[in-house]
């Protein structure tokens, strides 16, 4: 028997609406937190610079260097602002990537289960395949697969029982009065169709 290769998905946006929605929510929450902390940090840095400038202005020995020190403190504050902006952008990009990866691990199993449900709706029990190692919803997926196996097993039992009934009807057909045979033959025909449909369902 040929060994089945692990299933890999190349498309990261499987359920675009679902993944984008929750990725945006994650990124926005992260950005808001980063901006709040960044604002507080920058304000603390500016307050510290102003206090240092006041101390310099109060010292007669340093009063001549006030403008130079003021420029250097302003440059440091600007540098901190650039670092904070870069940090916020990095957080945003990281959360977007992380959000897509996480939602991909949820959307993937949901996508597969949806395909299985579609297949059952159109009269066919699907061939199942395992989830990827990092996919979520594994427990639910296993229960869903067990449900499919149980359904297939019940259909097999029904086929055996219906085949026995069909053989019995065919066996007694000739002993039934001629005027009643069309009903029996119609029943045999319908029963044969049901059996074939069930066989096709689990094929």
Along the chain, the helix and strand elements come as HHHH
Low-confidence stretches: none
Helix content: over 70%
What is the structural class?
Answer: mainly alpha
Please state the oligomeric state of the protein chains shown. single chain
Amount of beta strand: under 5%
Question: Nearest-angstrom radius of gyration?
Answer: 36 Å
Mean model confidence by pLDDT: 83
- The number of distinct structural domains comes to 2
Number of strands: 0
User: Based on CA inertia axes, which overall geometry fits?
Assistant: rod-shaped
Please describe what this structure looks like.
This protein has 203 residues and is an all-alpha fold. The protein folds into 2 domains: 7-136, no CATH class; 144-203. It is 77% helix and 0% strand. The longest helix has 56 residues, at 66-121. It starts with 15 loop residues before the first helix and ends with a helix.
Task: Give a brief outline of the structure.
By secondary structure, the chain is mostly helical. It has helices at residues 16-58, 66-121, 138-172, 181-202. Helix content is 77%, strand content 0%.
Distinctive features:
203 residues; mainly alpha; 2 domains; 0% strand; rod-shaped
Secondary structure layout plus pairing:
Layout: H1 16-58, H2 66-121, H3 138-172, H4 181-202
Helix pairs in contact: 1-2, 3-4
């Amino acid at each position: 028997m040929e060994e089945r290769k692990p299933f890999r998905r190349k498309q990261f946006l499987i359920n675009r609406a679902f993944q984008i929605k929750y990725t945006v929510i994650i990124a926005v929450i992260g950005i808001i937190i980063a901006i709040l902390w960044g604002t507080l940090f920058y304000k603390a840095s500016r307050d510290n610079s102003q206090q240092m400038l006041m101390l310099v202005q109060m010292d007669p020995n340093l009063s001549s260097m006030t403008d130079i020190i003021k420029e250097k403190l302003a440059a440091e504050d600007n540098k901190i602002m650039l670092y904070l902006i870069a940090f916020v952008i990095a957080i945003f990009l990281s959360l977007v990537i992380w959000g897509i990866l996480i939602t991909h691990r949820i959307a993937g199993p949901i996508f597969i289960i949806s395909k299985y449900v579609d297949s059952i709706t159109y009269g066919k029990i699907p061939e199942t395949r395992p989830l990827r190692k990092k996919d979520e919803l594994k427990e639910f997926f296993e229960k869903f697969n067990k449900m499919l196996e149980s359904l297939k097993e019940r259909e097999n039992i029904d086929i055996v029982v219906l085949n026995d009934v069909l053989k019995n009807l065919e066996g007694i057909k000739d002993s039934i009065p001629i005027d009643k045979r069309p009903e029996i033959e119609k029943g045999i025909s319908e029963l044969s169709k049901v059996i074939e449909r069930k066989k096709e369902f689990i094929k």
